Amino acid sequence: MPSIKQLLGAVTFAAATAWSQQYDLLLKGGHVIDAKNRISAVRDVAIKDGKIAAVAADIPATESVKTVNAVGLYVTPGLIDIHVHVYAGTGEKASYAGDLSLYPDGFTLRNGVTTIADAGSSGWRNFEDFQDRVINRSRTRVLAFLNIVGHGMRGGRYEQDLNDMEAKPTAEMALKHKDVIVGVKSAHYTGPEWAPYEHAVEAGKIASIPVMIDYGSNRPERTLYDLVTKVLRPGDIYTHCFSGLRDEQDPSGGPSKALIDGRKRGVIFDAGHGGGSFSWRVAAPIVKSGFLPDSISTDLHVGSMNTGMKDMLNVMDKFLALGMSLDAVIAKSTWAPAREIQREELGHLSVGATADVAVLRLRNGAFGFVDMHGARMDGTQKLDCELTVRAGKVLYDLNGLTRERWDKLPAGYGPQGDPRWDGYSRAPRRPAAPKTQEK
Ligand SMILES: [Zn+2]
Q1: If you measure from the C-alpha of residue 251 to the centroid of ligand 1, how many angstroms do you get, rounded to a whole number?
Q2: Whole-angstrom Cα distance, residue 395 to residue 388?
Q3: Quick count: other Cβ atoms within 10 Å of Cβ 298?
């Protein structure tokens, strides 16, 4: 146990060097993958006041209050998952505005995901409830596509109601909450009409945001080809592109003419794995032909989280197993989705950007990856998340890379009365308890 004198000596040393410790956190020696800045090389990343302060070949550890040895690890922008369902907590059964959604923080941070976009669980009628329940209470940055259905994804009775698909109130709500609403969603529609998609695009035009389409039932009256070449605009997003349920695949195995011509027009093709939207017999030949997804996303919800889809890193692993490079997989999980949702301040490690960072380990071994039908593909690489930093704060640290060894700390270490203690940062402060009802 260090003596008082030794401790004082350490404090004096810290004070003497404080002038040179210009950074709060230094990730040292990791391989940085930052698609926007075209970096894929060993770099040090320094963080100060919640922002990226420097990215350079060698930043001395003496310049940072805390330094993490990231040698052998990958340092990437915080991952961005643009297809999740997180409108939890309403208590509504069999509803994505309820029991089918998940609270985000337990599924995001441990995967290196710092930003998510809810894909239409709420519509203009219940978005502000979603915002109050989840968006404003999560440590993950939660953005949202607003459903063109005013009630959102509350089940068939609502989602098939053409009378509740109004562009104007949807666009108005999107414009009112520009800070968090990034797009308009249509999902699960089974009818032959074009109206849901036309109204979604109309709302997207008014609010200057993209639409994301889950194309529901495959109908000859409204083909995928017409959707992506006539109805959608360049920049609009077709999710679930490897389901094979709606003519995404040509009979020869490769991408259909709809995918090819849609991409030529600038329509975006997003993975959106989910519980029923990623099939090896569709994805493998399409990806091997060279048609890669524009973005990688999970479609995380109660019905997908324990199926073939596990989490964001599992979906990324699948594309590694299909032969995509790690650089491409990271780009399609960071900078590409940031651009798709018009949030170009996210998804990169530029100096001055909010310090959302993932530190990942790429393991080699024998791994299996399962699709929507329960079919397995074998792979040799798997990503693990070591560290997740959100706005400069370490919110997840699998192996305690940022923590001191317990037997190196002063005896009786802990938060009690020790101003130097920097234990786990705490969850947002709880609101005051509601007043007891008078009887
Ligand atoms: Zn979904």
Answers
A1: 26
A2: 6
A3: 32
* Residue 304 amino acid letter: S
Ligand 1 centre distance from Cα of residue 274 (Å): 7
Instruction: Using the mean position of ligand 1's atoms as its centre, give its distance from the Cα of residue 354 in Å.
Output: 27
Please identify every residue whose CB atom is under 5 Å from ligand 1, which is an ion: 119, 299
Token output for 105: 């923080």
Distance 415 CA to ligand 1 centre (A): 42
**b vs e for 240-271, b when ≥16 Cβ sit within 10 Å of the residue's Cβ?**
bbbbbbbbbbbeeebbbebbeebbeeebbbbb
Domain-located, residue 314:
yes
Give how many domains the chain has, as a whole number. 1
Q: How far apart are CA 291 and CA 271, in angstroms?
A: 12
Question: Do the Cβ atoms of 196 and 153 come closer than 8 Å?
Answer: no
Q: Measured between alpha carbons, how far is 36 from 344 in angstroms, rounded to an integer?
A: 9
User: Domain of 266: which CATH number?
Assistant: 3.20.20.140
Question: 273 C-alpha to center of ligand 1: Å?
Answer: 9
Q: How far is the CA of 85 from the centre of ligand 1 (A)?
A: 6
CA-wise closest residue to 271 among 123, 356, 371: 371
Q: Is 328 within the bounds of a domain?
A: yes
Q: What is the pLDDT of residues 191-224, one digit of tens each?
A: 999 999 999 999 999 999 999 999 999 999 999 9
**152 falls within a domain:** yes
Q: Using the mean position of ligand 1's atoms as its centre, give its distance from the Cα of residue 83 in Å.
A: 6
Tokens read off for 165: 């698909």
Name the residue range of residue 168's domain.
79-349+361-379
Instruction: List phi, psi (to 5°) of 96.
Output: -75, -15
Asked, for residue 398, whether it belongs to a domain, the answer is: no
**Spacing, Cα 99 to ligand 1 middle (Å):** 14
C-alpha of residue 275 to centroid of ligand 1, in Å: 9
For residue 146, how far is its CA from the centre of ligand 1 (angstroms)?
12
Q: Answer yes or no: is pLDDT of 34 > 50.
A: yes
Residue-wise pLDDT tens digits, 161-196: 999 999 999 999 999 999 999 999 999 999 999 999
CA of 331 from ligand 1 middle (Å) equals 22
